[in-house]
Amino acid sequence: MAFNEEAIAQRRDIAMDVLLDQIHHDAYELADEVAGLREKQQDVLFDGGATVRGDITLALLLGELLLHGWDLAREARVPWTFTPQEASLLLDGGVAVMPGWTTPKGRRHSGTYEVRVRGGTRVRFSFDNGHVRLAGAEERPDVLMSGTPDAIALTSYGRRSPILFALTGRMLVYGRRPWRGLILPTLVQAP
After folding, report:
1. Which of 33, 45, 133, 167 yields a CA-CA distance of 20 to 30 A from 25?
2. In 3D, which of 105, 119, 189 has the Cα closest to residue 152?
3. Are 37 and 52 in contact (CB under 8 A)?
């Protein structure tokens, strides 16, 4: 988060409407740039050494724009919400690069997680001593986490603790080993 706070501090003197216009412009420019990658099935090297499909790169970069929009809104003290589709985009993109962002603790961990965005997607993935992969439907999750779009988006990117959302009913953590839901944020570096 230090990088984000520094970037915000450098732009403090720029009017909020100018910043929001820039984000809007950048989102469309990015969408145009990456539009053909899905058809080409072109892979792109992303942060952490992960190789992802070009369309997943678009999901990740649009997710960054959404999260930085939240950062700006918080700074300006205006409301910002995430739709189920936006939170699903963030989750799908994040899972794609998870292998490259695993922490030392994550590299020693084994377990299967299912994360559900209410009104959106569900993703099941496994840690197997440092190897992160999408898990099959036949694999029983240790932890199931179901949350509102804002709860999933903000906990996935390390902006908020899952405990906050669990205490307010916006996230449920359950399953065979629900306590493992609390350590999930420590297994992967926040983007």
Report:
1. 45
2. 119
3. no
